[in-house]
């Protein structure tokens, strides 16, 4: 069986260069973007609250998200867990190609910034057509990935500044989360977790991409004031950070409800 590195090199050797096409040599470089990726989210007000979890695959995101959901439910909050990205979008051929092998972003098979824009637009459409109403009616939403994922991955893969600026502009149409969490773990931990998942059997994993993506997620999350959760410190430590941030929002939420009743 051909190794991941051989397959990546084969893609690189066969690629044709276009002005917008990414270069595989980017993965050999340190991640040090010269631009800020802060997203000027829309300032919409809802009775409900939006809580977002971002992080690379294998970072412990799903476990922390579930803890947050259960904590809110046990606190008597009407809450729904969701993934804004539609099943239809996930089945697009170029989405599947990139999800199974990120090196598809280097040979012209997939234009990752363009795919990122598709995913951002899909999330925006789903939010406006359905989830806006839930937040308006007072339901709290716990979202698995939001706007940072496509942008952080594009930055990690070496997308140009114009493409990143376009992605940030589209992302800004989404509402600002009440809380944003970013889960992280070292490269070796992330890769071991992914390899251990049956659903990811056969997925091509390039350690260089994950090394850069971890750094990119961290940088983009800091730019957007997300709370970083190190999943290697244990779930109790993670829960302590998560529940503390949620409690502050619950306190404000209950205060607003009391004011509404008085009016």
Note the topology.
Layout: H1 4-14, E1 50-54, H2 61-74, E2 79-82, H3 87-90, H4 93-100, H5 112-136, E3 140-144, H6 148-156, H7 161-171, E4 179-184, H8 187-195, H9 207-223, E5 227-230, H10 235-262
Parallel strand pairs: 1-3, 1-4, 2-3, 4-5
Number of helices: 10
- Uncertain ranges: none
Main beta sheet: 5 strands, parallel
Give the overall shape.
globular
Portion of residues within helices: 40-55%
Distance between the termini: 70 Å
Strand proportion: 5-15%
According to DSSP, the number of beta strands is 5
The helix/strand order is HEHEHHHEHHEHHEH
Question: How much is the radius of gyration in Å?
Answer: 19 Å
**Order of strands, widest sheet:** 2-3-1-4-5
Q: How does this structure look, described?
A:
With 263 residues, this protein is an alpha/beta fold. It is built from ten helices and five strands, in the order αβαβαααβααβααβα. Strands 2-3-1-4-5 form a five-stranded parallel beta sheet, with helices on both faces. The protein is globular and about 65 Å long. The model has no long low-confidence stretch (mean pLDDT 90). InterPro entries: P-loop_NTPase (IPR027417), Thymidylate_kin-like_dom (IPR039430).
